[in-house]
Amino acid sequence: MAENVPVLIGLVLVAVAGTGAVLVRDPVRQSFVLSLLGLALAALFLLLQAPDVALSQLAVGSALTPLMVLLSVRKVRRKARSERREEHE
Amino acid sequence: MNGWTAAGTALLLCGVAPAACATATGPVSRRVPAQNLTTTLLSLVFLLLAQGFGRTAYVDTALVLSVLGPAGTLLYVRLLADRLAARPPRPRSLLATTALNYVAVPAVVVPLCFATGPGRALVKLLVIGGLLVLGSRTASRAVTAAVTAGHGLAGSAEGMSDG
Amino acid sequence: MSVLPYLCAGWLFLIGCYGLATSRNLIHAVGCLAVCQSATYVLLLAVGYRHGGTAPVFSDIAPGSRPVVDPVVQALTLTDIVIGATVTALLLSLVIQIAKRHRTVDPDELSELRG
Amino acid sequence: MSMRLRLWVLAAGVLGTATLFVLACAELPGFGGTWHPYGDRAVHAALARHTANTIASVNFDQRALDTLGEESILFGSVLGTLVLLRQTRDERRLPPEPARVAPPVRRYALIALPVTLLIGLYVVAHGQLSPGGGFQGGVVVATSLHLLYIAIDYRALERIRPVGLYEVADAAGEAGYLLIGAAALLTGAAFLTNFLPYGTFNTLSSGGTVPLLNAAIGVEVAAGIVVLLARFLDQAVEIVSGRDEAEDET
Fold first, then answer.
1. Fewer beta carbons within 10 Å, N or C terminal of chain D?
2. pTM for the full model?
3. Is the ipTM above a cut-off of 0.90?
């Protein structure tokens, strides 16, 4: 049983991070939790003896996905802002 | 399960998990330094696990995280500069995070250096340690700079003002 | 313990589906889809795991000296993670297009526009 | 559909799926079992072909056709994003103002850029030996270039990043994979057969076509992600529609 404790902790971290990523509704805050989910998944993959997969997850999850989400949010907010201005006029 | 794996697991549970909690909750000004701390501690966990599993090949994951982690933090600082400026982090908590970074890196890397002995693996370890320290130092400075210069940035065309 | 990782994968999938169904922001929905996707990674790698095994990478250990985990599922997962990121990019660009055309990213408002 | 009705439908679906999934889990081989028939054969085959990293061997040799499919999905989604995020007629480019970046951040990024690039290339090049490969390394290489956006500003990034060239590189990576696969046909073997000499185990040139296919994937992933992020950055930083522009001027 003691052998399984690290994997168990990894699983719990992934499950909690995944649940958090869904329950946080604001996309900017969600991008933080998504990057945490990526890190937790990478840790779990390393514990499951899959360093290749962990590398893949780190490369994607630590900078790439948050960057794309934040850029989309910025573009969409810009749109929404100009829309609000129109209504005022 | 040997001592290194146990230490790695303990750091994962007692170091990474609380840092991750701080990243997931609270204002952006707390999330950004906490995100940096999470990636630093996680690279250290990877190093410990690599030693525990007896696989030097696993060290590559820590190497990649030691450069991409700070890149992610700087990205948040850059794209959320106005939010950082709106509610600046308390200098004391920022200082504590940085200090924790500085303490944790040598506390893990130095014993690992003794365990690996001289060779290519030692150089790799020292490079990772150096990158981690440099990365966390830059991250905390970037947060401070964004807070002080933030009000000017928020007004520019690139600032993401969202009310 | 013998089914726990599978259940964790199932939980990730279902919670992701819940988020997709109740999301009020398409960018958030894309994030929920990423959670669903990660369920498949956990399931695949859990199926391939072997107690006491190590990675089937023989650059630093001699072949046959230690039991190894299943490389096939790892190969499937690692390509899918990078592909998944580009598909996420495609979905986000669809969201940007929707925001341009309809000036909203709330799926409920969008269906009202159509109806 | 009202929110309440939707939640009921969701609850029914979730309960049904959960029940079936739990029943299926009971029949799956237990976690951590010793029975891995495919895995054992894949390891055996990889060692027979002198590839130290079995996962790379599975990806680029034993199941290379599968990877071709995956790669095509990547190519297709990059193409789709390019089309969706192109500059339309009612939009125009507004060059962003130069951003002020703290000197320590700039110094760090200028040091970290070559280091990250080097690590990315290392991860690609050692794909057939140690953990890593074209998929992972390509993403790291692409990320490293974007440190310039963080460190200086968007115009500095644009200067070293001729998007057209990266679009060509993306296509070249995809074509390279196909051509290496087709080259096997010339030797009389099947498509994507590993036809080159296997080399010495655990050296950079081992594994026959594995390092070549790995490099092709690396080029494609790196170029593809640079092009993707270029479109996202263009949209978020530079391109504005008529209405946005009016707002920015006020």
1. C
2. 0.93
3. yes
